[in-house]
Please model this.
Amino acid sequence: MIKVDFKRLFLRLWALIVNPRQAWSDILEEDPRQDVAMTFVFPLTCCCGLAILIGRLIHDGFAEGGFLNAFADAAIACLGLVAAFYLATAIVDQLSIRLLKQEPDKKLSALLVGYSFAVVFALTMLVGLFPAWVLFKWVLQFYVVYVVWVGAEVLMHIDEDRRMTFSLLTSAAILLIPFLIQLIFNKMPLAFG
Amino acid sequence: MDKKPAAINIKNKKASFDYEFVETYTAGIVLTGTEIKSIRLGKVSLVDTYCYFVGGELWVKNMNIAEYFYGSYNNHSARRERKLLLTKKELRSLQQEEKNPGFTIVPVRLFINEKGLAKVVIALARGKKEYDKRQSIKEKEDRREMDRMFKH
Model:
């Protein structure tokens, strides 16, 4: 079983936001073959779920409906983040083949996508705890493009011509997939018969 | 064992004042995720709602389910028309009876049952005459007066 050092986890999250170049170099030096899902994505997804649950319960109270809603919102957000991680990794793999004409490297793609989620994780936790700050999330989430752009240079050594296209497509996958999953769960008519 | 009373129980008080209920049915309702979450928080109003048939299906109009606070970009429209779910037999009988002059179908109560499903109690109703309304008010006042007397 992998033991999670939460202090280290949050320091890494902070480093990826404030100084992505240094953070990506540290990740590359540390262990480029690490299992990013177990060490970074899953623990932070759980933190996001917990933040949403706490935020909703503070706002709506512990009444029966409030708890059910909070639990459903947290579960949908977690599902969206995990699904987005795997789908975005698959998309980056395909981009490596089609756009960059490189051999696909699943571990490296997962590393780039997983750590690029730092911005999304931080904003999800923040808005989960303080729901009124949702506008900040809408504006600041686009910072993920810069984090991916730096990561693509440091981790994958992609030349500047194709790096912007690659960064935009990867960021779109990272931002759009959780959005689409939430859209499906909230907009899909369900028969409560 | 006593059943726990439903936490959410929204009544259409105006309907019981304006109409005389002939028959009631309990219907399911087709909702989106944000709608059921709003209902769980009790943010529903049945004022001015009524039901109508389209192509053999029963729909409810004017039911106001407030937007879900956390719904942001994927929220629902508060007053959209919503489909009600009844058995074919119930639908057929309601549709036939509704055709009689003076009859209408109104939602009377919305609640969440013990399984966590939202249900609407609808009634085949006949509009009350003015004197019926006055009679209802008088009955209500008499009942209140009796309660007050018993208390003292």
User: Anything to note?
Assistant: Residues 9-151 of chain B form a domain with the Small Protein B; Chain: A; fold (CATH 2.40.280.10). Chain B has four helices and nine strands. Chain B has a mean pLDDT of 87.
